[in-house]
Amino acid sequence: GDHEGRLMRAGSMDRLIEIQVATVTYDAYRNQSTVWETLVPMRAQLVNRSADNQGGQHATTDSTATFRTYFYPGLTLDHRVVFEGQAYTIKSIKELGRRAGMDLACERIGK
Length: 111
Hints:
Blueprint: H1 2-7, E1 15-26, E2 32-52, E3 62-70, E4 80-83, E5 86-96, E6 101-108
Antiparallel strand pairs: 1-2, 1-4, 2-3, 3-6, 4-5, 5-6
């Protein structure tokens, strides 16, 4: 319907994110290493972003962001998002409308 069309206006999709998938490999000594590769680049809207630095003893601030993007079938919490060179773990995936789009609630990895 019209609501879903308004929900996913292309004009508000002014950011570019990359959906990445991990490939786990083992070397001759059975050491595990994870290689992240870009699965698909997607246009997205940065719905909200916050930095949490209330914890006095924490030197690092965990930053969270929610990206609204087009529905991508097969996306799971095992994937991750890269935005502006920063990797984010996907904490939750909320479908919008009937596969009109999805909100990815993410948490930045590292500093």
